[in-house]
Amino acid sequence: MARPEWPPIRYLDSRRLRLIAANGFLVSCDLEGRGALADAIEAEVPENWPPELYDHKAMAFAGRQLRDPDEAGWSFWYVLERTDDGQVLVGICGFKGRPDKQGMIEIGYSVLEQFRNRGFASEAVARLVEWAFSHGLVREIRAETFPHLKQSIRVLEKNGFSHRGAGSEHGVVCYAVDRSNLI
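Predicted structure:
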């Protein structure tokens, strides 16, 4: 499948991963199905795609959000493991939009079950935190999770996030990292 001239695919690499910024074309491929997405990102897409918390409703929301070219990079990123044999899609990581007027953004992540406990979420969050703080307007990155999701909390703590109290919804806790904590 030839990739149409859409916004260029932006990506970030880390030690084991390639993060590909979602754009309207990629989201439309994702909505079309695993085969279309695999062709578009040039990676294997596991049968149990998409991961938890990233259903068709979330995909459609991202597609609408990404109609605004200024949202590029401030939505979600596909997380691919790079191997000697190619690439495999392991999850998603990303932001819920551009930074607000105070310089705050919220990050989230979800990894397919068979790829958990291998450090992929921690590595993806680390790379996106670095990318976000490379933009002078970002002062704080927040994440919300449930207190019983110890692995999720560990991902945040490994990346310098600290507990900040209750989250925006009942039963959710907030973690955050400030630019000043990492300098």
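Summary: Residues 1-6 have pLDDT under 50 and may be disordered.
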